[in-house]
Automatic annotation (TrEMBL):
Reactions catalysed: riboflavin + ATP = FMN + ADP + H(+)
Pfam families listed in its UniProt record: Flavokinase (PF01687)
A GO CC term attached to the entry: mitochondrion
MF terms (GO), sorted A to Z: ATP binding; metal ion binding; riboflavin kinase activity
Protein's recorded name: Riboflavin kinase
Length: 161
């Protein structure tokens, strides 16, 4: 995939509330504006990379892009599970991510426990892969260091943030 690593940023919106309730794995959802800006060669599926909430620490993440075939969603979503235990929810806060690698396509599992164990193995794979030097260096990228204030006029991937 030519577009990897892919950097993007946006506010966390409310989804269906299924991530944590059904699966025990919360996923922070991006709005349509971020989903619609994905380059054409970023296919649906499961990715891993780094994530940061506002100006906080940078954590490992796994992300699902697509229609969640298990739930038969009609809208394409982009959901990030941050590998960190947060004290509070962070709806409306700015999530910055860099997608660095691809794991697998989305699957339409027949049972919920199959979906959950697939996500757990994605998390294990992401943890391992992100220790590679070429991936570790993206954690230090300036993208995560830029001072972001609401008055600044930053442009990312052609978009004013
Ligand atoms: P929704 O359907 O609204 O996205 P989820 O059940 O998927 O609901 O929960 C996602 C929300 O949980 C996020 O928007 C965020 O505020 C919160 N959250 C807490 N911890 C995490 C985490 N480690 N990764 C992602 N989101 C988290
Ligand atoms: N949904 C699917 O229907 N099929 C999948 O293969 C799938 N894989 C996922 C992998 C990861 C790492 C994550 C975080 C989510 C995945 N999901 C998948 C999405 C899951 O169904 C979604 O997070 C919940 O529906 C909550 O919105
Ligand atoms: Mg979610």
């Amino acid at each position: 995939m030519r577009s990897l690593p892919y950097f993007c940023r946006g506010p966390v919106i409310r989804g269906f509330g299924r991530g944590s309730k059904d699966l025990g794995i919360p996923t922070a959802n991006f709005p349509e504006s971020v989903v619609d800006n994905l380059p054409a060669d970023i296919s649906t599926g499961i990715y891993y990379g780094w994530a940061q909430v506002e100006n906080g620490d940078i954590h490992k993440m796994v992300m699902s892009i697509g229609w969640n075939p298990y739930y038969k969603n009609t809208k394409k979503s982009m959901e990030t599970h941050v590998m960190h235990t947060f004290k509070e929810d962070f709806y409306d806060q700015i999530l910055s991510v860099v997608m660095v690698g691809y794991i697998r396509p989305e699957k339409g599992f027949t049972a919920l426990d199959e979906l959950i164990s697939a996500i757990h193995s994605d998390i294990e794979e992401a943890k391992k892969k992100l220790e590679m030097p070429e991936h570790l260096k993206l954690k230090e990228d300036n993208f995560f260091k830029t001072c972001r204030s609401t008055t600044s006029n930053q442009i990312l991937n052609g978009h004013r943030l």
